[in-house]
Design goal:
signal, eight-stranded antiparallel beta barrel, DUF1735 domain-containing protein, mainly beta, Immunoglobulin-like, five-stranded mixed sheet
Length: about 290
């Protein structure tokens, strides 16, 4: 009988080798890690401070080994941005007590809403410094960014903005001589963190803006704008290109487009717009809508 070569897949040989090398009855050494403390899962986070007495941010701290007795882990806290205890935050304790039989507990940080006016943002840096358990060589530092946050409520953001003002090119530019009233209405939700609105009388001043408007101008009847607050750190407003003033000066039909931000805490909008006509575009105008 003619002999043939026998080909055995390499994977089969490898599996056979592994099975042959394992002995379920053999005692293998158990490696116990050194007892160390670290911040778990992450080394940074963002705390959106709400005007709520129950607002708290918990930073998990853990150890590598289990103990039947409670163990304390101490931390230090500093702020490169100048946040101070009692003004921007409170820290009930700088010691995390991990109960016996557990390996994880947390450090509770309470933000103070009034300590974050406007767009203030602070950073707290936590370092594990000792206690009953030494700090690990990894994840021993945690950085917490803090900023205020207010829920977006349509009834708070619609209505008249009687203290609005226009600025030439930027907020640091020339301001309009007088304030004016703009309004936001027709709130229509388009998702859990988005909506469309109508903005009337945007940039109506005659010295910096483009007013006065005719009653039938889109600027007077309302410009469509989209609000988006999906990013808690940046609430945006977008005005897509649309008709603005039917007969602007001697240039005829004009269009407007723009973008900016809004604050649900302060109930303000800051929008930079560009107005265009067939002959070209005008200098950008920044409008602040303030109730």
């Amino acid at each position: 009988m003619k002999l043939r070569n026998l080909y055995v897949p390499v994977t089969v040989l490898a599996i056979a080798g592994v099975m042959a090398s394992c002995d379920k009855n053999k005692a293998y050494p158990i490696i116990t890690p050194p007892t160390e403390a670290s911040f778990l899962t992450a080394t940074s986070g963002t705390y959106y401070v709400k005007n709520d007495p129950n607002s708290v941010f918990k930073i998990p701290v853990g150890t590598t080994t289990l103990s039947s007795s409670a163990r304390n882990v101490t931390v230090s806290v500093t702020s490169p941005t100048g946040a101070t205890a009692g003004t921007q935050y409170t820290l009930p304790s700088t010691t995390v007590s991990i109960p016996g039989g557990k390996v994880v507990d947390s450090l509770a940080v309470k933000g103070i809403f009034s300590g974050f006016p406007g767009t203030r943002v602070d950073t707290l840096t936590f370092n594990i410094t000792g206690g009953d358990v030494p700090a690990s060589s990894y994840n021993k530092q945690y950085k917490l960014v803090m900023r205020r946050y207010c829920d977006v409520i349509s009834t708070d953001l619609t209505g008249n903005y009687a203290n609005s003002r226009d600025y030439d090119r930027a907020l640091t530019g020339t301001a309009s001589a007088s304030k004016y009233t703009a309004s936001i209405s027709n709130w229509t939700s388009t998702g859990p963190t988005s909506a469309t609105v109508l903005i009337k009388n945007l940039a109506v001043t005659g010295d910096i803006g483009f007013g006065p408007f005719a009653p039938t101008d889109p600027a007077a009847t309302g410009l469509t704008a989209t609000l988006d607050w999906s990013n808690p750190a940046n609430f945006t407003v977008t005005i897509p290109t649309q008709n603005y003033v039917a007969s602007l000066y001697t240039y005829g039909q004009s269009t407007i487009s723009g973008s900016g931000t809004f604050s649900s805490c302060d109930q303000t909008f800051t929008i930079t717009t560009t107005v265009r006509v067939a002959a070209g575009s005008f200098t950008a105008v920044v409008s602040t809508l303030i109730k």
